Amino acid sequence: MRRIAADAGLTAMALYTYAPSKAELFRLVYEDGIARIYCSFAEVVIGRSSLVEEVDALLECGGEILDHDPDLLRFTIRHVVDREHDDIAGLDVLTEPYLVFFEDLARRAVGRGDIARADAVRLVEFVTMLLWGITTFAAIEPAKVRAAVDTAKWAAAGRLAR
Question: What domains lie within the chain, and their CATH numbers?
Answer without folding.
Answer: 22-160 (1.10.357)
